[in-house]
Amino acid sequence: MSKLINKSHARSDVSFRVNSYVSHQQPGRIFTHEQLIERKGITEDQRSAALKALSRMVSEKKIVRVSQGTYYRPKISRFGSLPIEPRELVVAVTKSKNATIVPAGVAAVNALGLDTQLPMVRSFFSSERLRAKYNVKNVKFEYKESLQYFIERFNVKDKEQRTQALLFWSALNHISRYDASCYKDDLSKKFNKLLTPQTRESFFKSLPVSMRWVDEFLL
């Protein structure tokens, strides 16, 4: 009997720690069960109880499961739970997968001020393969081997310059050489205005052979 009581107390203690951790998470922020386990000092023997406590909170709609092992505490409005913001998901994926994530498609073109079309789906390129399936509507991640090729060779350290260069890389992937002529003047002006000479030089040197066609549009 005493063993059963002790087990019950142990489960209650783990459940309390899980609830405490979740309640201190800022609404809208993503967290993983590994972060919870590390922060709350949950042992390997207690892991199963912690995961069950998280599952109960999902059933009770206190948290949302984004993918296996990844959750977020939703923001609440008078109309109910608000969907997760894509930038929060991007931050979480970047940290947990050690990946470079870049806006893809129309989003990259928009970010450079070259178009105003609004995408129905927020798409992102990833430098790493993402095995997890993210349960978030209208957000899609696509592994791009050419992105990994580019970032391995792009040796600019300045954060803002890297961000801008990656947007140009992504936008050019979307536009392609056959449609680039429609954007040629704006592309060239933006490229030379936003990137330093050193960044532009590294940009061209880092492109894969399949993208060397951009030289004539940006130089």
Entry keywords:
219 residues; alpha+beta; Arc Repressor Mutant, subunit A; 2 domains; three-stranded antiparallel sheet; three-stranded mixed sheet; 10 helices; 8 strands; elongated; disordered N terminus; DUF6088
Describe this structure in words.
With 219 residues, the chain is an alpha+beta fold. The chain folds into two domains: 2-81, Winged helix-like DNA-binding domain superfamily/Winged helix DNA-binding domain (Arc Repressor Mutant, subunit A, Orthogonal Bundle); 86-218, no CATH class. The chain has helices spanning 2-23, 33-39, 47-59, 86-97, 106-111, 145-153, 159-179, 184-194, 197-206, 215-218; strands spanning 30-32, 64-67, 70-72, 76-77, 80-81, 101-103, 122-126, 139-143. It has a three-stranded antiparallel β-sheet. It has a three-stranded mixed β-sheet with strand order 6-7-8, sandwiched between helices. The protein has a two-stranded antiparallel ribbon with strand order 4-5. A hairpin with a 2-residue loop joins strand 2 and strand 3 (70-72). Helix 6 crosses helix 9. It is elongated and about 65 Å long. Mean pLDDT is 87; it is low at 1-7. InterPro entries: DUF6088.
